[in-house]
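Protocol step 4 of 5: obtain the predicted structure for the target chain.
Materials: sequence only (see below). No template structures provided, no constraints applied. The aim of this step is simply to have a reference model before the mutagenesis design in step 5. Sequence pasted as it appears in the construct record:
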Amino acid sequence: MEGISKMANNRIRTDNIKSSTSSGSVNKLVIVVASAAVVVIAVLVGVIVVLLNKPTESEQKGTVASGTRATMVSEPEDVAAFLNSELPPEAYYTASMNYDWHFQDSASASTDAYVENDSSNQFTVYFDLFLDSDSSLVYSSPYIPVGETLTGITLTESLDPGDYPATCTYHLVDENNEELSTVSVGLTLHIAN
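Step 4 output (structure tokens):
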């Protein structure tokens, strides 16, 4: 009987070992499933955050159409409309200029700034010069006839020494000085003193 009792005790111990091993596998499975669920949830949250922060079409920055028919546009759909537009040939023009304008001080004429209304154009142009930082107008040119070059540009606003990103907006006008089209070009003003 003693032998049977020992066998029963061994069997109970073996059953306990099998039971705890089986329970350990279940715990590992639960941990793996829970970890996978956490990863899936984290990925879903990331996708939702990205989609919620994506700018709408109206919030996207405008672009500048490139090529010979350049103009400033404010919305991406304007690019397609512009490129497919049938503007009359006289609405296109070429303006030659340099993109770094140097001034000894803001009251002196630039030492190198020039703007040319190319002789291939049909109409007069003028331009306005705005600081990019606050859109303030710092110069407005006289009319520049076809084939003429404007030099000796003096700013109309006082600026401290430094470099100023600016935007030059050209206006093409007809014989009655009515605007036909515009184009905006970036440049930098360099004020020495």
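Step 4 remarks: The beta strands are 95-97, 100-103, 115-117, 124-131, 137-140, 149-150, 162-173, 179-191. The radius of gyration is 37 Å.
Proceed to step 5.
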